[in-house]
Amino acid sequence: MQTRLSSGLAPVFTRWSVVLPLWLAFFVVVGQPARAPAQATPFTYQGQLTDGGAAANGNYDLALGLFATATAGERIGSPQTVFNVPVSNGLFTVQVDFGVNAFPGADRFLEIGVRAAGGDNFVTLAPRQQISSTPYAIRTLSAGTADMLSSTCTACVQDSQIQSVAGSKVSGTIPVTSVPAGSGHYIQNATGQQPNADFNISGNGTVGGDLTVNGTLNAKLSGFIQDRTTPQDADFNITGNGTVGQTLHAKVIGVDAASPNGALEVSRNWDGHYGALTLSGDRPTIRFSGTSPQGNQQWILHESGNGPGNLEIYNGGTSGTFSVPALSLTPNGNMTLLSGNLTLSAGNLTLSSGNVGIGTTSAPVARLDAIGAGGGIGIRGASDARGVIGSLGAGGCPASGTNAGFGVGGCGSTTGDGVVGRTSVGPNTVTAAAVRAINDSGGDIFIGENRAVTLNVSPRKARIDGTGKGFFNGGTQTGGADYADSIRTTDNAADLEPGDVLAIDPQHKDMVRKSRQPNSRLVAGVYSTQPSVLGVGKHEIDDSLRGEVPVALLGVVPTKVTAENGPIRSGDLLVTSSLPGRAMKALPKMVDGVALYPTGAILGKALEPLRQGRGVIRVLVTLR
Hints:
The chain is built from 1 helix and 37 strands. The radius of gyration is 44 Å and the shape is flat. It starts with a strand and ends with a strand. The relative contact order is 0.04.
């Protein structure tokens, strides 16, 4: 075999040879990387592939790796695997990208593996091929000389390239025209207000124009309202509007009230929009702070941000920490009591519309939506006849005396369910369920009846007794397609998967393993994909089946097979193959013109064909 690895400098010729499974020989020729408009990390790999001395045609998989040495050593970067590479008349082209850091200038060697497309293992070609430089790469290696600017650089750095200069690096006189506008570090000559700038002048000054003060003016003068912390013995009467930017202290305030009662009295007739007092802003709130006679309790009436304008009442205890509202009223009229109890000592609580939620964290979704906290009971009903009844349709529930005395009753209409159980627990959870039936006396756990049956025929159609045994008058129908037993395995159960052909382990009692020999009479069955019935032996219903696998003994099972004994056709008998965990076509021995198959080694019959290679087909498992 001959390969050629070339670059822009000089070609390198190396002789390769390798023998592959199925007596294939592969030959690879590496072409020069194709030019691109700009330098990039991918390069084009071009080669020639022959099969048995002739140009190959079809699809192949290539595995390419980069190394720093001709033999051994660690792989550089990620391996590049290119699948289904089309080969026409022996020629193929692929794109390879080992990244920008893979070629720092040191020696690099390319290792290549080849297999037929979709095959099992790659065959590594030897020796590895050294990659030579290209003119572009040589230029890249010398580009490090531009990392530092020359001390003789003149006008090589422009204004647009300068981001900032530290103030400590500036010396000398700065012309006024060079001072940038908008800085907050000096007083500027401008007509607009200069934001975030303070000044403090100890000498005298003159203001030739108007002086505008937007904040506080402190002056040692009398005859006007002064900025001071002590009371000023002065009255004021202002007919216009005014703004108080800080705290306003007053003993009594009356708004449209000549003689206010209490600390604050607002008198205003209802105008259909605002009323006497309006609170606005982000989450407007009224706070109530009690003293010792009220237990120092803190309350707020608050328009919350928890919902689109919910009005909520919070209790902050004595510390004034408000976290969860006690009562919430939504704009659409839903009222939620989030903590505490609602007690009616007399009278009725009537809702003409809307829902009632108890223990819910969001708007209730039913007329009565009750959730028990911490695994508690959501709704408890106690009565001489029925605890809780839900009725759908106009028919109502059976009258007292007919099925009277049940804990929970559901009466559905022609389109509604009588009783629905729902939960969010995950699989294999034995502590909670959507519906749980309990019999404390050992009797039946479940009884199902159909009262629309013919006269004089028992309406009872399904029953589960106290031992867990099920009785079904009309038969049963389940998912899946096979019967399987759960059997321990000497293999690591995590390494087995559905479709594996399993055999009895002769070294261990009652255990199986992946089949290992062709035509084995130890064949036990197939690792079931979805058993219709799974026998668990002496296990209880909630026992763990760890270390065991479902072994399909009868039924239709997806099975791993190989064409080791030739193509498989539908109806062919199957036996174990030399490949672990796979079945193959059974070949009979002809005795006086009669085909004899190995007794005790037949796994079943193929329901689908396999023309070549390996695959998974449906098999009617019938051990014999």
